[in-house]
UniProtKB/TrEMBL annotation:
InterPro entries in alphabetical order: Ribosomal_bS20, Ribosomal_bS20_sf
Lineage of origin: Bacteria, Pseudomonadati, Pseudomonadota, Alphaproteobacteria, Rhodobacterales
Region of interest (Disordered), residue spans: 1-25
Entry similarity comment: Belongs to the bacterial ribosomal protein bS20 family.
Protein's name according to its UniProt entry: Small ribosomal subunit protein bS20
Amino acid sequence: MANTPQSKKRARQNERRTAVNKARRSRIRTFLRKVEEAIASGDKEVATAALRAAQPELMRGVTKGVFHKNTASRKISRLSARVKALG
């Protein structure tokens, strides 16, 4: 358990940051799920629109430190390839 005032403060800050990051990660996953559902339904226009909405959210997650840059790029790349493959 935290003993010094500094370590107590760091523990409080970590709790707050964890909550913020959890909410942000959940929001990003929701956007990704919408793209997945649009791909599963086979509607290319809806999937393209969902992907266009998800891309800035993912990259915002990168700038906020929730995801690594390469992870976000990989997800975007794979999703866009799947959307493109829709007839």
